[in-house]
Amino acid sequence: MAELVIEPQWVIESDAVERVLGDYYGADVAGADLTPPADPTELRGLLRQGAPQLGALTDQMRALFDSGACGVMIPRLGLAHLSTDQRRKSVFALAVLLGNVTETEPDNHRVIWDVKAAPEQERQFSKFSQAPDEAQYHTDSTIVPIPERFFLLYAVTQADCGGGLSILRDGRQVMDTLQQSQAGRAAVDTLRQTPLPIRIPRAFRRKYGATATDGYSYVPVFADKPMWRWRKDKIENGLVKHPDAETPGVRQALDTVAEQLADTTNEVRQVLSTDAIVVIDNHVAFHGRTAFTDTKRHLLRIRFHDASENLEQSWIS
Ligand SMILES: [Fe+2]
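A: This is the predicted complex of the input protein with fe (ii) ion.
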């Protein structure tokens, strides 16, 4: 994880960001309602012109990823004095400058997801981002044909209870360790060669399709893009539904990876303080979070593809 400490002068550009977004989406657009831009390259250009310091900051972040970082954290972004709506817009602009933002779910097309504990009956799609429980190591968007390369988390309000710590593992390092043992090498081979069933929820099936008629797609856990596609709970659920897929080799491979992830030697564990932002390379890193009790904890999450990536793919080619 690379840490970028900045003098947040670019905050003076939050007015310019609001102006550019107002011109692009309509003057009264709310940060919470922002959708993926019709032409991401055009909006990137407009933001770069209107907010050059923010543009330069995202160039620095990009350079850290290009030199091998699996995550970049800025401990204080400099938005703390702004309204939540202005913070949403500034963080959205930062994401657009870094890549092609995606909608959180297909019905309302909103880009920004509020990571906030919600009462159980109100939770929608995500068990992790709306619950206060521990989120074990996983990668995001495992149901998406090509998951977004990046996601960011910005802390509007950090947890005040000592919990809600972010945890991160570099999946390339996990891979290297696996390659050092026979069981590890066998696990990697199995997970590369054996696509496993994962359920595509109905709302997303309309968008991405599914390769099997029962709404499942068969995808490898380990590949090139992404390197890891890991949501252990969803993989296990898929195997319960499709027991034929759970061969002894698959069982052993999954257990071997889980065992490796349980070893916290190379873990990065840190609090995401209020006004901090972290961007994670979702194609190589595993992330998770410790449990928390402070329900005021509030993060913003935005996912985005590399600027050169297509926005939409389907499971069905
Ligand atoms: Fe996640």
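DSSP finds nine helices and 13 strands in the chain. The chain has two domains: 2-161+270-306, 172-262.
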